[in-house]
Fold:
Amino acid sequence: MPWRKYRATEREYGKSYKICKGVQVRCDARKKWTIFVTAKGQRSNTTVGEGRDNFIKAIKAAEVVAKKLENLPQDFGQKKPEESVVMFREYSKEWLNGNKGRWSEDTYEKYEITLRLHLYPFPEFNAPLNKISRKTIKKRLRDHLQTHSPSSVATTYNVLSGIFNEAIDDKLIHSNPASGLLKSILPPVNKRNLTQADHTWPFSQKRIRQTMIRVCKTAGLRVRHPHDLRHTYATILLMAHTSPAYIQRQLGHSNIQTTINIYGHWIPGEGRDGLEDALTKSGEKMHKNTYKTRHTTQPTGIVNL
Structure:
């Protein structure tokens, strides 16, 4: 008898036979044998009929269903997100501005520069999100490594992965094509050449930082970092009443709103009038402070500019 190999339990209207996980044959309220199937959150049932013969038919039909379920893909019954028609460029800008509050000012600028210089210029990223393949991303990262440092490649990867992860959360794509790729592009962190310079630059970032530290200490000034020069330059321009549009182009911001958000606490003027005077006065002030440091006695030996 085909049903004897299955465990039977008593239910309200009669016996129920478990064929496999998600497949049962039960006697319903009408005293008819019915096949109940539950797979990946979807439920269905089929009534076979009354009596012994229909009971045997129900058991055999349920066995066929059970075999089919064993061969179903893991995502059977799960509703997949619709195909994305959102362009990478537009969505990446939303991602950048939407997450700005989570990052420091320097991180925001670094990600914005990465998108503008290392991703947007390439035609393969002028495409819908769901059309950018894992192979495309891998090639871009490997090509990037030929002319840039490992840290620059890692930043580009983090930007791409962050964008695609958010697109998954927004149900625009099914998976992240960049996931785990960095391991196949770069060696482990403890084996990377951290002093490797970008081939497009004469010095590595580490060497520039070390040089600035040495110069500041020699001059008796508070230690500054290379990125501080960028902020100083923008501030001097604004103090000289330079147009924010000109400063935007100088800093390489993708839009003027980014410039205003970062430096908006300075009151901008118009045009480039007074720029040279501002730079000259700033240089004279720094020279005077350096002179005082070298020729006057101060408890700390440090001049705060």
Observations:
- Confidence is low (pLDDT under 50) at residues 72-79, 268-272, 293-305.
- Residues 205-295 form one domain.
- The first strand starts at residue 8 and ends at 11.
- The first helix runs from residue 51 to 70.
